[in-house]
Amino acid sequence: MFKYIFILILVFLPIFANNREQCHVMTPPLAPLGAKEQAPDPLSRSVVLSALNSVLSENMSIDPRQIVWMRSQWKRFRLILCICTGIAWLVCCAGIILLGREDLPILLSMIFMLLVVTGLFIYLLWMTRRELKSLDRQAIELRAQALRAEGAKTG
Asked: Which of 110, 81, 91, 95 lies closest to 7 in space, CA to CA?
C-alpha cells in the first residue's frame, strides 16, 4: 500500500512542480569554476529584500510587473506547499490508521512525522503570508510615489 502511495508521490509531484507553461524563473548567474570566495546566495531573503529596498529608494526603477511576478511565485509556492503537506498528512494518517498497536515504534514515528509536517506547514504558510503582505505594501508604496510624481508634474 505504501509503495503505491510513494510511487504516486514520485510521479505526480514533478508534474505540479515543473509546469513549464507557467514557470518563468529567473536563474542567477553562476560563479566561475574554482572560485574560492563564497558569494552570498543571490536568492536569499536578506539579499532580495535589500536589493528591492535599494531599488525602491533610488529612483523607482522597479517595475510593477516584477512585484506581480514575485507575488505569483509566492502563490505558486503556497500551492505546492499545500499539495505536499496534504500528501504527507494522507500518508501519515493512513499509516497511523493501518498500523495498530503492534508496531509501536513505527506508529510513534508516524505521529512524530505528522506533528513535524504540521508545524513546518504552519511556519511556511505564515512566512508566505508575511511576504505577500510585504509585496502588497511595496506595490501600494510604488503606486503612491507614482501618483505623487504625477501630481508634481501637473501641479
From this structure: 91
